[in-house]
Amino acid sequence: MLELAESVGLKPAHACKIGVCQSCSASLVQGDVFYEHSLTHSPAEQQVLLCSAKPDSDELTIELTAC
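Now predict its structure.
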């Protein structure tokens, strides 16, 4: 989802791009996500890591804190 955000001109914070630093954390407003690879640290409740999360529902709403 990080690449999608960047492709439409958004600039979410990120650093490692593998789910370790969690700087790409965003608020999950609606829908579900999954992670193909296990994470060293799970994101906080109702948070998703844009670099690693994949949509797992037909509709997904995420709120970016700073773009």
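The two ends are 14 Å apart (CA to CA).
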